[in-house]
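Colleagues,

For the teaching module next term, I've prepared a clean inverse folding example: a structure given as tokens, and then the sequence designed for it. I'd like students to try predicting residues themselves before seeing the answer, so please don't circulate the second half yet.
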């Protein structure tokens, strides 16, 4: 069990918010057992967790353990999705999360971890560039670059200005 998450769960009651997982550099997630304990109030048996999974033949106990993890993952998702969807921008966040699961899982299985600090720096840089672009766009007369009517009006005006200067 990740001690950081367990301590956080006792302290603030929300392992699910994500706390540093000492076992996985850069990871901010709880173990399945911790998340299930918090969200579903169920204690998962973890006796088989450290059994010899590398052997060619798994035991019936290992199959049962793996199946229980799969079932609890589905129950946990079912319990958390409505909670997330009810948050402000929750539906959008849930959609992004669902689209990210498979690529992140493939990366982790390949041994590639996510540099969260590097990603945060990149996002900050992009946000700065976006702010500068919005100022430049506003300076040419488009207050809302997401507004098709505003962009269309600017394009029509620009086309008229350019065609009259060519004559």
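(Answer key — instructors only)
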């Amino acid at each position: 069990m990740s001690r950081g998450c367990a301590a956080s769960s006792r302290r603030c009651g929300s392992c699910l918010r994500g706390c540093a997982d000492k076992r996985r550099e850069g990871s901010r997630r709880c173990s399945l057992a911790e998340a299930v304990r918090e969200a579903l109030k169920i204690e998962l048996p973890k006796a088989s967790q450290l059994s010899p999974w590398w052997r060619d033949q798994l035991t019936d106990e290992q199959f049962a353990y793996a199946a229980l993890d799969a079932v609890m993952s589905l129950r946990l998702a079912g319990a958390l999705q409505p909670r997330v969807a009810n948050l402000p921008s929750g539906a959008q966040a849930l959609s992004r999360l669902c689209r990210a699961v498979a690529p992140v899982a493939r990366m982790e299985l390949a041994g590639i971890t996510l540099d969260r600090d590097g990603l945060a720096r990149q996002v900050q840089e992009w946000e700065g560039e976006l702010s500068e672009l919005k100022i430049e766009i506003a300076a040419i007369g488009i207050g809302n670059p997401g507004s098709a009517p505003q962009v269309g009006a600017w394009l029509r005006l620009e086309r008229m200005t350019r065609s009259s200067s060519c004559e």
